[in-house]
Amino acid sequence: MREEDEAEDNPCPADPAGLRRVFDTIGVATALLDRQGRIADLNAAMLRAIGCRPDLLIGQPMAGAFVWGGREDAADRFAQAVAGAGRGMAQELTLTGDGTWFDIALTPLPAESGGEPAGIVMTAADASRRITAEARLRGQEERLRAARDEVARAGQAKVRFLAAASHDLRQPAQSLTLFGAVLAERLSDHPQLPLVQTMNRAVEAMRGLLDALLDVARLDSGIVSPDMAPFAVAEMLERLEADYGPRAAAKGLKLRVRPLKAQVRSDATLLERLLRHLLDNAVRYTASGGVLLGCRQRGMMLCIEVADTGVGIPTDKLDEIFEEFVQLGNAERDRSRGLGLGLAVVKRLSHLLGLPVRVRSRPGRGTCFTVEVPLHASWNPNGTERAMPCLDRPGALALIIDDEELILQSLRLVLEQWGWDVLAAASGEEALRQLDGAERLPDVIIADYRLRFGRTGVDAIRDIHAFAGDLIPAILLTGDTSPDRIREARRSGFTVLHKPVTLSELSSHLEEARGRAAAE
For the Response regulatory domain, which residue ranges apply (predicted)? Predict the structure, then answer.
């Protein structure tokens, strides 16, 4: 074959001129350096980047070809990188001297016979766009971080506000509840009793609305975290029966409670709160017949049911009833029939606890809500549980500790009306002084959780236990909604009641405490 034919068949002949054209056609600034960093060759793109004639550059150190703008740190870093590449180690760095940023790569050029590199291939790419984009991205990240911090600060402020609002609003509500009960008892034969009873119903409605509003706000703010632990369902149902039995009877209804001796695992306080909202609705919307609070086991789940013989719910409204401010059949917004928040709270508590709530209803026949709670894994259905003790012993002594004078007075009046002897103190220190001169120890301690000067009811109770040398039954009252405060109170091991406490709640827990004291 002729040489001309070979040249025609080979599109990339290995001639210096052809390689030169390819080298200059490459869009990336490229230079060939020896192992000491001196320029052996460079392409057109590198010449444009440096801005100098090639005859002035060949044989010169590449470090001197760039305008570093007096930035000795950049020149030193480049020289160190060249030295590393001359020893066979690839280098990458980003440098600037005159305001233009370059991403520089130094790649050792292997020698044909092996050993030390034959030279260094250097590439330089304009990094200005990348750096600008990264700076813009960092700015966006900083703004996002600032926004997240602001949201976190707002969330913390909301937590503090809710805790303060809850405490400050519940205090007068608690006093009104207790004073109203005392006044109704003292005016039992007075012609103005209906006026007092109307006032008490208004206070009860205010308490219910306050609880619902604060519950929605707390659950939506994410400050409530469940405290999962095993507990006996029967005791919780007994408390609910003691509280809602009289309410149902006042409307001519019969509350039937069908407990099951079982232990479940959940947050006892939040689950009881959920059931209370269901019972509130059942009693409120049932005009005749009754309400059932019962349990049945299904596998490793306990189904707790709240059923009524009330007005029922149309099938197409079963999802709608869980939304805020929805009340079927209350177009006139009668506040005595609630605010339409109870089932909205149930929905939030259900999601928080991971407990499904199902509802079935027949208009005109009644409604049944079912809450499925997991049974505690180690519960033995054939075992026996300690029954809640109860002791009717008039003249028992109660020690009340609260730094709010109105709460102290109203609690004293209620307990004395129930036949208790009472010691009242504004602090744990004052309580100890009174006990030091008392003829007997109290049968129960009732303490507000948040006292003055950073002290808590837990501190006061433990000081009294140390003084008495005896674990006297104790009840903590709290108006706080702060999750940290609630967890601290629960960890104390004492009974925790949330203000405003109803008389039936207080009465049942006092009987339980007195029973424990007698049993011990």
Answer: 397-514
